[in-house]
């Protein structure tokens, strides 16, 4: 996996001042040639950069951070503003020489590392030009752990299905387990057909070497009973209800839920907080072939509920349902699913703001606040009980794709909730997992969503201080 890095601290690192706007203009750092900086038009506005010349080239730099504010004060249009400096500064090591009182230096450093991510598997990627020395007072290990989890999620999502099918997703889980002393159990073949019939049905048409499987990753040690379940559809053609070609172009990202739960597990393990954690990934490819499951089929499920298939392109909830039922049998205190599940969620909230569903008000508030305060925004949507009738067809217990098109994200969440009986608090995230266009700290391509919100809310969610 790609590893995030800080620059080593040394005397050659050039100083970077983070300059706020005051009532009468920039609040100039002591010793800075403010006359030169002002003559360039530098005013401390968010994202402004001023390079100060010295012997042999640029010796200092100023970066505008605007009027001091925290994410809780008002939403930021750019959640990782300091990443602009990482992308614009000249090559070399830089250190933060000064910042406004209250500036969240750890957040700034994390955004800088996010901006340094490169996906270089298929072509030589230009290395990051400007590298940051870990700022004084910042928990270096914590920032690197969060960046490593994000990098892992991005690497997995960005890898095309030709090189990341169910077997390779299993290998990624095994690599993670080897790094952190966890164990992996993988269920395939007849055992999958008998115990997880919907996972087997969705993945049975995939070609040789791409057989469906359920990946079960467990971390040793003591800790709260937390289970993460991630949708691992490594490519989604839509099945016999085949997608248009334009809609298929980025379907390598349909395992984004799996990528996010693995990324979160990576972060928790590096922080020493993965004791007792369990991760389940139903890994499949939804392919078209002679053995494809069909519209109108009625599938058995692990829980015993029958499911009528009214759209083979609503396969994610089928594989998740079997995995959730399995997870719930162990009665975890907290059960979280993450999935690139519905277009309806994107229509409602766009690509940048994933919805989450949770019946527990205090847990939902903890998640929302953690997402807001740590630049990982999420938005609560309801398990709306009156819509339960929409997922109950005439000839089976459940319908995987109610007709009409209304409330698609909610009906999908309600469907999944039917399989979580026995678990404690259940939270479902309907993520996009993809950055459609580049933004500071978030290059175009695979992206983590909800991981840091969960990470920082976990103590409240599990009742552990």
From TrEMBL:
One of its GO terms (cellular component) is cytoplasm. Residues 311-318 form the Cytosol aminopeptidase domain. It comes from the Bacteria. PROSITE patterns: CYTOSOL_AP (PS00631). GO terms for molecular function: manganese ion binding; metalloaminopeptidase activity. InterPro entries: Leucine_aapep/pepB, Macro_dom-like, Peptidase_M17_C, Peptidase_M17_N_1. Belongs to the peptidase M17 family. This is Cytochrome C oxidase subunit II. It comes from Paracoccus sphaerophysae.
């Amino acid at each position: 996996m790609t590893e995030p890095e800080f620059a080593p601290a040394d005397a050659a690192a050039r100083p970077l001042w983070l300059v706020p706007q005051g009532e009468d203009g920039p609040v100039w750092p002591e010793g800075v040639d403010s006359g030169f900086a002002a003559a360039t038009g530098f005013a401390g506005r968010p994202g402004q950069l001023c390079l100060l010349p010295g012997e042999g080239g640029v010796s200092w730099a100023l970066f505008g951070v605007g009027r001091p504010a925290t994410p809780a004060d008002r939403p930021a249009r750019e959640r990782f503003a300091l990443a602009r400096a990482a992308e614009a500064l000249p090559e070399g090591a830089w250190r933060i020489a000064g910042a406004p009182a209250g500036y969240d230096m750890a957040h700034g450093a994390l955004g800088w590392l996010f901006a340094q991510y490169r996906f270089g598997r298929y072509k030589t990627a230009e290395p990051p030009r400007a590298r940051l020395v870990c700022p004084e007072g910042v928990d270096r290990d914590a920032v690197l752990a969060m960046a490593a989890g994000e990098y892992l999620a991005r690497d997995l999502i960005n890898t095309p299905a030709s090189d990341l099918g169910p077997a390779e997703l299993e290998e990624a889980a095994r690599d993670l387990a080897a790094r952190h002393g966890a164990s992996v159990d993988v269920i395939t073949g007849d055992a999958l057909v008998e115990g997880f019939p919907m996972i087997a049905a969705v993945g049975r048409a995939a070609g040789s070497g791409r057989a469906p499987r359920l990946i079960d990753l467990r971390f040793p040690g003591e800790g709260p009973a937390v289970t993460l379940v991630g949708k691992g559809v490594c490519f989604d053609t839509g099945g016999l209800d085949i997608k248009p070609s334009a809609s298929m172009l980025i379907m390598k990202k349909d395992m984004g839920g799996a990528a996010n739960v693995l990324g979160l597990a990576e972060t928790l393990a590096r922080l020493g907080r993965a004791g007792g954690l369990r991760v389940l990934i139903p890994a499949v490819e939804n392919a078209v072939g002679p053995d494809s499951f069909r519209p109108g089929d009625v599938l058995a499920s692990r829980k015993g509920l029958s499911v009528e298939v009214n759209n083979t392109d609503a396969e994610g909830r089928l594989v998740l349902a079997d995995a959730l039922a399995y997870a719930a049998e162990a009665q975890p205190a907290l059960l979280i699913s993450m999935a690139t599940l519905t277009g309806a969620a994107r229509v409602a909230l766009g690509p940048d703001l994933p919805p989450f569903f949770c019946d527990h008000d205090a847990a939902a508030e903890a998640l929302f606040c953690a997402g807001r305060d740590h630049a990982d925004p999420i938005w609560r949507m309801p398990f709306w009980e009156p819509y339960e009738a929409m997922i109950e067809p005439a000839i089976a217990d459940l319908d995987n794709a109610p007709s009409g098109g209304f409330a698609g994200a909610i009906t999908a969440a309600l469907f999944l909730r039917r399989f979580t009986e026995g678990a404690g608090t259940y939270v479902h995230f309907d993520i996009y997992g993809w950055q459609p266009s580049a933004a500071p700290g978030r290059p175009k391509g695979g992206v983590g969503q909800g991981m840091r919100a969960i990470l920082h809310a976990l103590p409240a969610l599990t009742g552990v201080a």
